[in-house]
């Protein structure tokens, strides 16, 4: 290994990625076929946000030396940064096959499985790494993160505290401890740990996201929703789907009972309304409360560009609903009421678009949302047309009214199904 590459590795471990890149490029000038140098260059470029060049360097490393475990590890890291989790998993499994006793590779596998929401598999990978090195901080933290998501808070807390003793300046440990505190409802302590994590790593997304959640937890409604969402996140995918589908079936049954038994309707309708409102609010809570954070000076700084964009779109839906209600109250137009309802409901598929990773799932959800919106607005346009003139035959007017409600009904049904479709696309993406 050349002197420049040795320096680059030290600088990379110190998170001085720009200087590490300079040293790697000097090494490549002398040895352009060095796969390790290409792999390290890919890691440096990825850390600096130059993902396309990072991908090229990592792939170049694998091409030049297919049996280099480090090259496959670098490729897995770059792919994970780009949320291509299935390919990242294949690359890291190849790295582990070539070097099964490298704890860093097992930590990377655990990290990828955490991103996939495969918490039990993430624990298995982290524990495999800890059998090789019981003090590996990344494996301890990843195991704690997965335990926390599975609702095993006591075990997670013990693991995080042991990691903090071993390395008190590790940003992931502080972020993990912050999430553990947030799950217990201790917002002030959580905020302290998230700020410490950001002090140690100013670009750490997990800590930044934690700070945003702490700020939103100042709102009582969001605090309740957050506890529910954290509880749901700790369930396995089959249990999540069981609750979602079971809730939908129960809703339909109560709806039928309310129609068939008028005496019970007084009790059932408020329950149905609260259930529907809770379901919609749970789905759109993240961008909706991010919108409120835009009014907070510190909150504005904590939000990422993607979060700001999502809050803008959901805010537009909410604003459309408010304008529609105002217009309906002033004019009494049925079309205005329908427009208000449609704008409000469109916040659900719009949120689904921003909950999905880049690529095919996001494009499918975007197209789906556009179709649902167009169906609704065509229905409203037909409904808003002036009443048929006297000479127009009654069947024509009736057909136009039928078309209007057909389009509107299809749009409303589409918004109701959009949450399940987004979850399905996400699950398909995670398991590919």
Summarize the structure.
With 432 residues, this protein is mostly helical. The protein has 21 helices and no strands.
Overview of the molecule:
By secondary structure, the chain is an all-alpha fold. It has 2 domains: 3-164, Serine Threonine Protein Phosphatase 5, Tetratricopeptide repeat (Alpha Horseshoe), CATH 1.25.40; 234-430, no CATH class. It is 83% helix and 0% strand. Helix 7 (103-115) runs parallel beside helix 9, helix 12 packs antiparallel against helix 13 (205-216) and helix 19 packs antiparallel against helix 20 (360-384). The longest helix has 37 residues, at 394-430. The two termini are 37 Å apart. 39% of the residues are buried.
Topology:
Blueprint (H helix, E strand, L loop, with lengths): L2 H11 L3 H14 L4 H13 L3 H14 L4 H13 L3 H14 L4 H13 L3 H14 L4 H13 L3 H14 L4 H14 L2 H14 L4 H12 L3 H14 L3 H24 L1 H32 L3 H6 L2 H27 L2 H22 L4 H25 L9 H37 L2
Helix pairs in contact: 1-2, 2-3, 3-4, 3-5, 4-5, 5-6, 6-7, 7-8, 7-9, 8-9, 9-10, 9-11, 10-11, 11-12, 11-13, 12-13, 15-16, 16-18, 16-19, 18-19, 19-20, 19-21, 20-21
Main traits of this protein?
mainly alpha, Serine Threonine Protein Phosphatase 5, Tetratricopeptide repeat, 2 domains, 432 residues
Secondary structural class: mainly alpha
Number of helices: 21
Instruction: Summarize the main sheet.
Output: none
How much helical structure, as a percent, in the residues?
over 70%
Number of self-contained structural domains: 2
% residues in beta strands: under 5%
Low-confidence stretches: 388-393
Average pLDDT level: 81
Shape, per Cα inertia axes: elongated
H/E element sequence? HHHHHHHHHHHHHHHHHHHHH
Distance between the terminal alpha carbons, to the nearest Å? 37 Å
Oligomer: single chain
Strand segment tally: 0
Structural Rg? 26 Å
């Amino acid at each position: 290994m050349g002197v420049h590459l040795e320096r680059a590795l030290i600088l990379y471990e110190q998170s001085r990625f720009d200087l590490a890149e300079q040293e790697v490029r000097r090494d490549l000038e002398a040895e352009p076929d060095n796969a390790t140098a290409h792999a390290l260059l890919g890691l440096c470029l990825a850390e600096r946000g130059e993902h396309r060049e990072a991908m090229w360097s990592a792939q170049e490393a694998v091409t030049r030396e297919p049996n280099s475990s480090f090259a496959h590890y670098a490729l897995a890291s770059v792919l994970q940064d780009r949320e291509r989790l299935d390919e990242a998993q294949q690359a890291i499994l190849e790295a582990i096959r070539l070097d099964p006793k490298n704890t860093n590779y097992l930590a990377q596998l655990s990290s990828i499985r955490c991103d996939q929401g495969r918490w039990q598999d993430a624990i298995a990978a982290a524990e495999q790494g800890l059998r090789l090195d019981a003090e590996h901080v990344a494996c301890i933290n990843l195991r704690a993160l997965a335990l926390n998501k599975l609702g095993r808070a006591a075990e997670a807390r013990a693991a995080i505290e042991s990691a903090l003793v071993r390395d008190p300046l590790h940003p992931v440990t502080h972020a993990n401890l912050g999430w553990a505190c947030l799950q217990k409802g201790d917002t002030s302590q959580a905020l302290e740990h998230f700020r410490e994590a950001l002090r140690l790593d100013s670009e750490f997304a997990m800590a930044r996201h934690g700070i945003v959640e702490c700020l939103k937890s100042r709102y009582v409604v969001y605090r309740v929703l957050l506890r529910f969402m954290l509880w749901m996140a700790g369930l396995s995918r089959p249990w999540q789907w069981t609750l979602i589908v079971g809730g939908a079936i129960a809703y339909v049954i109560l709806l039928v009972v309310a129609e068939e038994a008028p005496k019970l309707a007084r009790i059932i309708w408020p329950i149905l309304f609260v259930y529907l409102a809770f379901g919609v609010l749970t789905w759109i809570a993240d961008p909706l409360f991010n919108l409120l954070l835009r009014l907070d000076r510190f909150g504005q700084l904590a939000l990422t560009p993607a979060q700001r964009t999502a809050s803008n779109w959901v805010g537009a839906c909410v604003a459309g609903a408010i304008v529609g209600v105002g217009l309906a109250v002033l004019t009494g137009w049925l079309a205005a009421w329908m427009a208000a309802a449609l704008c409000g409901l469109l916040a659900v598929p719009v949120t689904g678009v921003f909950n999905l990773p880049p690529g095919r799932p996001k494009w499918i959800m975007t197209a789906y949302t556009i179709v649902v919106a167009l169906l609704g607005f065509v229905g409203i346009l037909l409904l808003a047309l002036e009443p048929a003139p006297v000479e127009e035959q009654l069947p024509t007017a009736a057909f136009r009214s039928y078309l209007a409600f057909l389009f509107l009904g299809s749009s409303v049904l589409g918004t109701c199904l959009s949450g399940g479709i987004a979850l399905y696309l996400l699950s398909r993406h995670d398991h590919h």
